[in-house]
Amino acid sequence: MSSSTSNSDAMNPASPRSVSIARGRLQVIRRLGWGALVAFVLLGLLDAYVFRDPAFYDLGNKNGARGGFIGQFAHIERAFEAQGGETIEYAIFGDSQSIDGLRPDVMAEALGVPSGCIFNFSVSGGKPTDSLYLYRTYAKKMPNLRKAIYVVNEHQLNNADAGDDTKFKFHANLTQRLKTLDRDNYGELLVGWALRSFGLRTEWTALVERYRAGTWPPEEEAMFPGGIEPLRWADPKTKTPEYAEEVADRWFRDWQSEGVYTDALTDLLESLRERGVETVVLQIPRMPWFEAAVEEKYAAERDVYLAKVTEAATKTGATFEIIAAEEAGLSEESFRDVNHMNPEGAETFSRYAARRWWGNAD
Length: 362
What we know:
By secondary structure, the protein is of the alpha/beta class. The protein has 2 domains: 2-45; 52-357, Rossmann fold. Helix content is 53%, strand content 7%. The radius of gyration is 27 Å and the shape is globular.
């Protein structure tokens, strides 16, 4: 009898037991709902204020290392804020070649202007998408910008692995991501656009490991006047014909001239033209061994690259020039490896560049 009554109560929605069960379930649902909401809000805050902050990925500048690729944007930000954008009249964009080869302090001395007039936005491994991102980030903070140098080379216009670059995954907008989608990376790039915590998970999990090892965060924040600190030394094996061929192979691997990098170059040059900035696109000197490796193995791809850069410069009213080492007064002793200048080479080339392209600034 009691069993029958119990079953009947359970089946009766109006019975006290049924009401109690329903209330319990509702409380569980509410708790889960609130928990999900709190987790969602927390994830959103972390994504907005942690995973999108380049300083989170900054590994410092210890022992001459430039830190993580994304962390370079934090170095740029600190140097820019210390210098002040209103003083900047000349800007440099590019990659590690222009970090090492174009020194703002030396160029300013050659021009006879304050060092705060020149800023180098170049980042190691830099591509046109990185330069476009940096220009858009700081353009309005540089009301007096009037001249720019963009240092270009072949690897910057190889679009083959654009979607794999960590810097690209950090700052690329949706339009740029759509240009690089394929069947292997579409989820990574699209979800990563909404949630950097997902798109850059390999980066921040690596930071966790470094934290456990006691090497992160850095002991102090690195700040180098005028941009990112140049490297001054390289292993002797990086200054050989064999290494020149290795670098050329890496630059031209799976060569693809059409894509987001090539488009970004035109977009950047067009943006500079629209505000009246006189822009020179430069291929700066490399060692003869490197030029020989490119000529021997990748002459056809190099010619396509040259055509693309020429087209972008012509379309946007910029000047494109290729400068050989001898023309700039450089020798084999001016380089730390086959495609980067050492401090002595940078001193020579910085003065040469300042006087040749910015010497008529007044």
